[in-house]
Write a structure and sequence with these properties.
Order of helices and strands: EHEEEEEEEE
Helix content: under 10%
Strand content: over 45%
Number of domains: 1
CATH architecture: Sandwich
CATH topology: Immunoglobulin-like
Structural class: mainly beta
Length: 124
């Protein structure tokens, strides 16, 4: 059986505790507080890869999207050579739910879409 194409759906690590070289370069890394206060802004930093991803004309990250649960929040379009796949956005969560999932999707022009998630707790 041949390996599935990286462009067939959303790429996620086969073994999250044991990333391959390709996964280390493409998995979004989400850095934000584990607990946030309802109604107060908080920063979410996203970098693409534990190992820095190249940003060359022929191979680059094209965009990064940030979701809160399934709700789209922001898309950052990147340009090869002149931008880096390392961004910070500011979000505000309401107190309606006690937990939320920050979900990040990025697209590499050669290796498809990659997704990472992080659970956060929301306090009053």
């Amino acid at each position: 059986m041949s390996e599935k194409s990286l462009f067939c759906g959303m790429n996620k690590p086969a073994e999250p505790g044991n990333l391959t070289e390709t996964e280390k370069k493409h998995m979004p890394v989400i850095d934000c507080p584990d607990t946030v206060k309802a109604g107060e802004p908080f920063k979410v930093n996203i970098k693409v890869g534990e190992i820095p991803h190249v940003m060359q004309e022929a191979h680059s990250v094209q965009w990064i999207e940030v979701f809160s649960g399934e709700n789209f929040k922001v898309r950052i379009d990147l340009t090869p050579v002149t931008t880096l796949p390392d961004v910070t956005v500011t979000l505000v969560k309401s107190g309606k739910h006690r937990t939320s999932t920050i979900r990040v999707v990025e697209r590499c022009n050669l290796h498809g879409q990659w997704e990472a998630v992080k659970q956060i707790t929301i306090t009053e």
